[in-house]
Amino acid sequence: MSKSTFLWLVSCLCLFCMPANGQEKKFAKKETVPTDTVPLFQGFAVSTDLVGPGAYLFGSDFMSAEVALEVNLKNRFFPVVEIGYGKTDATNEDSELHYRTSAPYFRVGMDYNVQYKKRLPGYIFAGVRLGYTNFTYDVEGPSLKDPVWGGEAPFAFADVSGNALWGELLAGVKVTVCKNLMMGWSLRYKMRISVSDHPNSAPWYIPGFGANNNTKFGVAYNLIYRIPWKGR
């Protein structure tokens, strides 16, 4: 785990432990909310992830930026759409391949508030996502030696088309900072479902997923704004 990721996790944990808006008594009592009295539509919210841009500023080879729109149903179910943009322009030190790509990506899914029966300034949630991206990449590396005829042949391919589909399992916390502003973090377990391969190369980085491995972990640290509506 990088130093910057560790600092984000510590700050988020501290944030969740702090009661917001003078709601110490509510937090302590854990007031139960009758679920049959909660209207179906509870509004919606927009959010952005700070980890992708932050990691890039701290020297990561990968950069991603995204926004999300979620709908609040009974303070229990939160359908989510996430739209982002990922890119890299870096060299893999192991293979000495220089790889460039940039493309949008999309995720759809749902979060579930496991504390929906409690009236709290924050909550713990679990969720699922299905992600997809369609992209092109450039790859170049050391020249290849011909074992039969001798000499060298360049290894370079441009505008190679690719696409990838993956799933994510996530869990995290969200806490109210002020009236309509929330912050939270989540840990994500990513599972690659499919990825297209070129006969002479494979994508090293997948926008929205990260390094092209079968599975991997990721961290998100979100700034969330709940859009006010007259029924709330």
End-to-end distance:
40 Å
* Biggest sheet architecture: 8 strands, antiparallel, barrel
Numbering strands along the chain, what is their spatial order in the largest sheet? 1-2-3-4-5-6-7-10
Helix count, per DSSP?
3
Question: What is the H/E order?
Answer: HHEHEEEEEEEEE
Strand content: over 45%
Low-pLDDT regions: 1-10, 13-29
Compute the number of strand runs. 10
**Outline:** elongated
**Reported CATH architecture:** Beta Barrel
Name of the CATH first level: Mainly Beta
Radius of gyration: 22 Å
Tell me the number of structural domains.
1
Report on the structure:
This protein is mainly beta. The strands form 2 sheets. An 8-stranded antiparallel β-barrel has the order 1-2-3-4-5-6-7-10. Strands 8-9 form a two-stranded antiparallel ribbon. The longest helix is centred in the N-terminal third of the chain and has 15 residues, at 3-17. Helices cover 12% and strands 58% of the residues. It has helices spanning 3-17, 24-29, 51-57; strands spanning 41-49, 62-73, 77-92, 97-113, 122-145, 152-176, 181-195, 205-206, 210-211, 215-227. The protein has 3 helices and 10 strands, in the order ααβαβββββββββ. A hairpin with a 4-residue loop joins strand 6 and strand 7. It is elongated and about 80 Å long. The protein has one domain: Porin (Beta Barrel).
